[in-house]
Fold this sequence. Notes:
Layout: H1 2-26, H2 31-35, H3 41-57, H4 69-79, E1 101-103, E2 148-150, H5 160-173, E3 176-178, E4 193-198, H6 214-223, E5 226-232, E6 244-245, H7 252-258, E7 266-267, H8 278-292, E8 296-301, H9 306-315, E9 324-328, H10 339-344, H11 349-362, E10 370-374, H12 380-389, E11 393-396, H13 398-403, H14 426-429, H15 434-458, E12 472-476, E13 480-483
Parallel strand pairs: 2-11, 3-4, 4-5, 5-8, 8-9, 9-10, 10-11
Antiparallel strand pairs: 1-12, 6-7, 12-13
Amino acid sequence: MITTIFIVIAVIVLLGVAALAIHDLLQTKDPICRNYPVVGHGRHFLSELGPKLRQYIVADNNEERPFNRDDREWIYRSADKSNNYFGFGTDNDIEQSPGYLIIKQSTFPLFDPQPEDEGYDPDYIIPSTKVIGEARNRKGAFRPNSIINISAMSYGSLSAPAVEAMSRGAALCGCLQNTGEGGVSPHHDHGSDLVWQLGTGYYGARDADGTFDEKRFVETCDRFNVKAIEVKISQGAKPGRGGVLPGSKVTPEIANIRGIPVGKSCLSPNAHRMFNDADGMLDFVERLADLSGLPVGIKSAVGQLDFWNELVRHMETGDRGIDFLSIDGGEGGTGAAPLVFSDHVALPFRIGFDRVHRIFTDAGIQDRLTFIGSGKLGFPEETLLAMAMGCDMINVARTAMMAIGCIQAQICHTGKCPTGVATQDKWLMRGLDPTDKSARLANYITTLRKEVLQLCRACGEAHPSDMSLDHFEVLEDRFQARPIG
């Protein structure tokens, strides 16, 4: 009798496990459980158990890097459109945290509309105050609908479902999507306005030998919804180094889009063939603008300042110029890189952007172009500080990845991303449903814009571009604080 009971229980358990496995494989909400049926629930169990055990055996809320537990939790809750409030006050040790950012609110804040108020905007659209390309009369000059947009992440580095989710999500919330240097793919073609990034490999616009191809460039601009061109000089993850896409990720589709051999590692040069100084770069920029009619800008991390001084000298004449400038901080990181480049090459965003912006401001030409910041700026306080420093817009990358499912496993370069975001593995990719994740991305961008506006109104300002460094202070030790400006 007892043996029969145990057999019945075992059968029931096995049937339950099988039913759960089938459910996990068919559902589209959770990529971890879809890729790892049944056992994936262990992660959720540990996540729930973690806060109760954290003070004894795991890291606290602010220890992990590059994004700590509080950062990730805020992103996930915002993307899920759930309650992203935190109770019982801050758990940051403010008095013992030199460099801690403080936003100074106004005694009389601006009225903040509520859902029932006239003029309430559920999407919290914050258009740019500048028209990109207007100063140089580009045919395709436009005013971006959102000051917060998706930064450069290539198809190849990211999976097809991830790129599609970002494209659909960008369309939903009205922001721009940067293609990354891997070229424009059909997975970008889901309603979003695109910024096509041309890196040193000129992928999607190159001959077989890697030289820039005008015909392919124009064909791509005409085929897709490209609103602007970004020439990548360098990126924060590995400034001075070219990108690497392992051969295991170079599928026939990716090879065709990029114009490279199938299955062979794609090694981008660390420098451009078409120019080697600011003068030659401006010639290339004007060539791209003439061919496409679109605004053209550049993206770069900041190291030595000779290039920036030379660029400004050439632009002062007014004959040539970039339409926008994306400055990436050395803390940027969607690309895998040698550790020394990640840790020690290029200035952090706050320092690098300030130095470059001052060069343009001192020359009196800062209004001729749009300034864009990137490098861990995907949080309300960091976005607002970047705007106060002179940014007209900001780009987000890793936080956007988290919004569509990334769990900061930090194995992007292995092709084994467990959530299907940064991989070309067909089994892992199937765990990421583009429709569900596009909504999560749109929720994250919308929530970020909402909280940025709420901070502005708390400070008595109507738009992030109205913020100044006078609204901020930085804490120092011995109970002191200093203004930033």
